[in-house]
Design a protein that fits this description.
Helix 5 runs antiparallel to helix 6. This protein is an alpha+beta fold.
Length: 412
């Protein structure tokens, strides 16, 4: 190099400049890396609460994570070298600060809440008590057996009804009956099914009236298994792999003839000639006294229409895939009776859902949906008080409903 430049001084000068350039590039790279690391907010306090099989994670953060929060679980302490072995349970929305997961068994597990950038990559800051749990969490109430306590399911078609017979073990608790046009194989099958009834564990048979000509599958799930996320389908025990289809036994009768023939062509349209004028009245025609009296009676009985109800709302946390536990049970109700407009069944199922202790945020959402269902059934007073219970967590959505119900109750 020195021979090319022609002098030792020039050689030393260019060698010195290359070193300076390398140092500057190094500092710039470190600065960009530091900027990337601070681009997402880190949780400041991670707390864990265990109730039976439910593990509720709650955390604080100075701002929302751009790509949401990645929730991880692992039997090993979660760190940079073990993150690949952890299971990502779900991605919580950026504005979420709490989430409930279902422990698969009674073994100890570590949990992590890692902020995600816009590309979905997690932060690699593993801080005990902030982004990862300090110690393993044991859900002592986690179910060890996932097979439903229901056996000997049989279905018989009797004329225009389906007769289900089965055996439920004592102490199982309420049992949910589902009907679907697809076979029940995995827990995801419940998303395509309709919840048609809730039975006590003393029931031994159930009668359904499905639409004739359509093949249906049935499944029975204990409510306790559904809440714990422990759902399985066993052919011949709580479901059947072959469908049942009813044949229509009634003949459709045609509508009776009215005896009045409709015109084949419309009445002719009168076209006035160029020299023809349209007759005009010098004064309005007078009405008969009987006609005036009838019109006065109609006008006196006119009542302003009632205010229009706000549109039905599904809150943001329930628009995606539920992670499990109480949120998953609520999503099944929303995708079943609520989505189909079966308000009576929605009121019954949501009331049963709220009969158990729920986390404040989920309970508030359930009260909001129950209030909407009650409003659609005309129970304005009960709906009003349910909206008040949902107001703390869902103020903007409940405000217009409360104002509407106040007008309805005032005018009633």
């Amino acid at each position: 190099m020195c021979e090319v430049l022609g002098s030792m001084e020039k050689c030393r000068y260019y060698s010195y400049m290359r070193r300076i350039t390398a140092v500057i590039a190094l500092f710039l790279g470190l600065g960009l890396a530091a900027q990337d690391r601070t681009a997402v907010p880190l949780p400041t306090r991670l707390r864990v609460a265990v109730k039976g099989a439910e593990v509720t994670l709650t955390w604080d953060a100075p701002s929302d994570a751009p790509g949401g929060w990645g929730i991880y679980r692992s039997p090993l302490a979660i760190a940079a070298d073990s993150l690949a072995k952890a299971v990502r349970l779900t991605i919580a929305s950026p504005n979420i600060r709490t989430l409930t997961a279902i422990a698969p068994d009674g073994a100890p597990y570590f949990y992590a809440v890692l902020p995600l950038d816009r590309s979905g990559s997690p932060s690699l800051s593993f801080l005990p008590g902030q982004t990862v749990t300090r110690q393993a969490v044991v859900a002592t109430g986690a179910p060890a057996v996932t097979v439903p306590k229901i056996t000997a399911l049989k279905i018989n078609a009797i004329k225009d009804l389906a007769k289900l017979s089965f055996t439920i073990a004592a102490g199982t608790g309420p049992v949910l009956v589902y009907r679907s046009i697809g076979v029940f194989k995995t827990p995801a099958s419940l998303l395509e099914a309709n919840l048609i009834s809730t039975l006590p564990d003393t029931t031994r048979d159930f009668t359904d009236f499905p639409i004739p000509g359509i093949s249906y599958y049935y499944a029975l799930i204990p409510e306790s298994n559904l809440k714990a996320g422990s759902i399985s389908f066993v052919d011949g025990l709580n479901t059947l792999s072959s469908p049942i289809s009813l044949a229509s036994t009634k003949t459709m009768a045609p509508l009776p003839e009215t005896g009045t023939l409709a015109r084949i062509t419309p009445l002719p349209f009168h076209v006035f000639a160029s020299n023809e004028t349209i007759p005009q009245r010098d004064s309005p025609a007078e009405l008969l006294p009987e006609t005036e009296k009838a019109i006065a009676g109609i006008l006196s009985s006119y009542v302003d229409p009632t205010p229009r109800a706000p549109a039905l709302v599904i809150l943001a946390p329930d628009r995606g895939q539920a992670a499990g536990g109480e949120a998953y049970a609520l999503s099944l109700i929303l995708q079943g009776a609520f989505a189909k407009g079966d308000w009576k069944a929605s009121v019954s199922q949501l009331s049963s859902y709220l009969s158990l202790n729920r986390s404040p945020a989920v309970a508030s959402r359930a009260h909001f949906y129950l209030a909407q269902a009650l409003a659609m059934t005309g129970s304005s007073r009960d709906a009003f008080f349910e909206f008040l219970k949902a107001r703390d967590f869902n103020a903007p959505e409940t405000r217009q409903w409360i104002l509407y119900l106040m007008k309805v109750l005032r005018d009633s």
